[in-house]
Inverse folding.
């Protein structure tokens, strides 16, 4: 596809985890397509591992990587940060200002709107990546953030959702989008579809993800303890990741007497983490479209995951294998079943992988997003877009209730 070169700036608060993986893949693909791309993110977030990934990306972006202090919650410091970001974005003169996550989306749309008032022709695009949509609409924080999303919706030219679930959550909690909207699945590179083999010395289970309750590592630890209570032996397990609640999870492991069975690691590349254990466990309480699920399925690793967010869309006709989120008894049964029947787990992993490549690719992801940019600039005929109401749900999986079980953790 031949496109007119664009100046594209991505804005995100926290350059970690799946959201940064998405931006990194997208920015690299856009750069390789001949566009000038830049990234703006928080200066205080990220471990040594995350910062190495950011440093690797920096020389590839012609508009550079800029870091400013950005608070997670709404604070008075946001005013200072907004002014600094405004000056930087103004000088970059982007054609596309693409905000990711609640905070990045707010900065991008507010600053883009001010620049438009000054005569700049800037397209304002927003990708929630879960973000404020994880909050329950009947709780105070949910009401605040969803009201802000409704107000910012008036300053939005394009909306990109990473799953049918996320689109449904937006419509239910915020309202029907007025902006041109697309559902664009996260994508993987061709080399990520090479199966990962593990050795005889591999542990039984590995948790891979951020160390915070929303992702469920506490449930993972408790399930290991339950198996030890019922069998007399604790499964060997690894916990891979970093996050604000790591100290509490280490205390849980000590409290349950699992120190000899559980090993904590920092962040690792997913395909290295896969080699640590025979089965990957992702016990999330809420998700949008998690990369770790895609990476695990593509690597043909046995997987236990919960029925949240866009995960059923990945599993498709195999969605009945998913575990109810937040249900420690069912998670324990699933992990116990994996120990008893590894051959079944391996066969299920092969089945899942066989139907993933065509739908979840970086090439398709980049093409769909770039096409949306062009449409918003008026450079191509508008693509026929399905409604984001109930009739637009993917046939691959039934729509779920859009309220996250544990939205304020």
């Amino acid at each position: 596809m031949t496109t007119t070169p664009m100046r594209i700036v991505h804005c995100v608060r926290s350059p970690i985890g799946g959201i940064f993986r998405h931006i990194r893949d997208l920015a690299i693909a856009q750069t390789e397509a001949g566009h000038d791309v830049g990234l703006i993110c928080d200066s205080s977030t990220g471990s040594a591992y995350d910062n190495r990934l950011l440093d690797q990306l920096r020389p590839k972006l012609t508009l550079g990587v800029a870091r400013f202090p950005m608070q997670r919650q709404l604070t008075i410091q946001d005013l200072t940060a907004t002014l600094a970001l405004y000056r930087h974005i103004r000088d970059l003169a982007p054609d596309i200002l693409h905000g990711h996550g609640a905070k990045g989306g707010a900065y991008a749309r507010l600053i883009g709107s001010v620049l438009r008032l000054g005569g700049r022709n800037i397209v304002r695009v927003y990708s929630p990546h879960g973000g404020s949509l994880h909050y329950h609409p009947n709780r105070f924080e949910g009401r605040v953030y969803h009201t802000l999303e409704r107000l910012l919706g008036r300053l939005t030219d394009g909306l990109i959702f990473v799953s049918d679930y996320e689109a449904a959550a937006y419509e239910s909690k915020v309202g029907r989008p007025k902006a041109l909207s697309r559902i664009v699945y996260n994508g993987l590179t061709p080399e990520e579809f090479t199966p990962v083999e593990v050795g005889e010395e591999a542990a039984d289970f590995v948790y891979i993800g951020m160390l915070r309750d929303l992702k469920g590592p506490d449930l993972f630890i408790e399930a290991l303890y339950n198996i030890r209570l019922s069998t007399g032996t604790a499964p060997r397990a690894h916990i891979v990741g970093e996050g604000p609640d790591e100290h509490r999870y280490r205390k849980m492991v000590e409290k349950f007497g699992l120190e000899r069975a559980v090993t904590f690691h920092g962040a690792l590349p997913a395909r290295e983490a896969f080699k640590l254990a025979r089965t990957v466990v992702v016990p999330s309480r809420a998700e949008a479209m998690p990369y770790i699920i895609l990476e695990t399925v593509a690597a043909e690793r046995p997987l236990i995951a919960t029925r949240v967010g866009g995960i059923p869309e990945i599993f498709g006709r195999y969605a009945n294998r998913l575990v109810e989120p937040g249900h420690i008894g069912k998670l324990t049964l699933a992990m116990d079943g994996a120990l008893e029947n590894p051959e079944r787990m391996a066969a299920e992993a092969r089945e899942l992988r066989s139907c993933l490549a065509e739908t979840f690719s970086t090439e398709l992801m980049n093409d769909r997003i770039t096409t949306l940019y062009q449409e918003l600039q008026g450079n191509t005929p508008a693509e026929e877009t399905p409604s984001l109401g109930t009739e637009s749900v993917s046939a691959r999986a039934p729509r779920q209730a859009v309220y996250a079980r544990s939205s304020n953790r």
